[in-house]
């Protein structure tokens, strides 16, 4: 039984009571339900390790492995290589990132044309950012235009990117967000996810999804009952409701 199951059970109980007023659950009652939940320490440790590995906290993962004895799903040495790729994209060194990806596993880009296009698109953006206009136009024509001819979605993205060259002041360009650091981060996350998938690992950590499920369950139960909440997920402390 999980914490999520407590919320589901409570919702089912409340569905049986069609009274208009909300059911009030005291702290004592709620804590009794929580204390009845049996969680294995090994399962909690696995969740933590999954988060550390997926997000690339290699030193923390190594330390956690030593202290808890929890075995990671993949070789921790591969995290360093993956983070080097991600950092290269975040810093705008896309050519270096592509080389590193190919060193890890050439099939990643060979079998993922969308990812490769987005990396090449980011290369074009970096050329434009640096003011290397002629080189950017040549790169777009030779490397990206042929892919755009084969894929309408790629062509539309290419046209948006080249539009950056039309405006002397990028801040007035309708697609100026392509020059934001957030676009680098988006591309870096896409590469990170592809590498994880190639290693037969989930591309997203499980822990955030479970916390989102917890929030969703609380929101559902709010419509039917008044009970102690976990408002601060970082502490997990129960807070008495205002009635």
TrEMBL record:
PROSITE patterns xref list? CTLH (PS50897), LISH (PS50896)
Gene this chain is encoded by: LOC104703705
User: CTLH domain spans which residues?
Assistant: 78-135
Q: What is this protein called?
A: Glucose-induced degradation protein 8 homolog isoform X2
Record's InterPro entries?
Answer: CRA_dom, CTLH/CRA, CTLH_C, LisH, Ubq-SigPath_Reg
Which Pfam family, any one of them, does this sequence belong to?
A: LisH
- Tell me the organism: Camelina sativa (False flax)
């Amino acid at each position: 039984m999980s914490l999520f199951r407590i919320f589901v059970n409570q919702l089912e109980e409340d569905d049986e009571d069609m009274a208009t007023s909300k059911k009030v659950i005291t702290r004592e009652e709620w804590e009794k339900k929580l204390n009845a939940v049996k969680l294995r320490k090994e399962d909690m440790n696995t969740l933590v390790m999954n988060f550390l590995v997926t997000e690339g906290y290699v030193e923390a993962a190594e330390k956690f492995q030593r202290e808890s004895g929890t075995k990671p799903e993949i070789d921790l040495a591969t995290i360093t290589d993956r983070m080097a790729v991600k950092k290269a994209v975040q810093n705008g060194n896309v050519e270096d990132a592509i080389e590193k990806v190919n060193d890890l596993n050439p099939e990643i880009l060979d079998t993922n044309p969308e990812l490769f296009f987005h990396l090449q698109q980011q290369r074009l953006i970096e050329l434009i950012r640096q003011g290397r206009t002629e080189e950017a136009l040549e790169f777009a024509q030779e490397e990206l235009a042929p892919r755009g001819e084969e894929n309408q979605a790629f062509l539309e993205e290419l046209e948006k990117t080249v539009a950056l060259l039309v405006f002397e002041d990028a801040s007035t360009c309708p697609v100026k967000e392509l020059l934001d650091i957030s676009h680098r981060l988006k591309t870096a996350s896409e590469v990170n996810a592809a590498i994880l998938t190639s290693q037969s690992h989930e591309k997203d950590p499980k822990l955030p999804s479970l916390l989102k499920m917890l929030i969703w369950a609380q929101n559902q139960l709010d419509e039917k009952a008044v009970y102690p909440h976990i408002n601060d997920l970082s502490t997990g402390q129960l807070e008495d409701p205002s009635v």
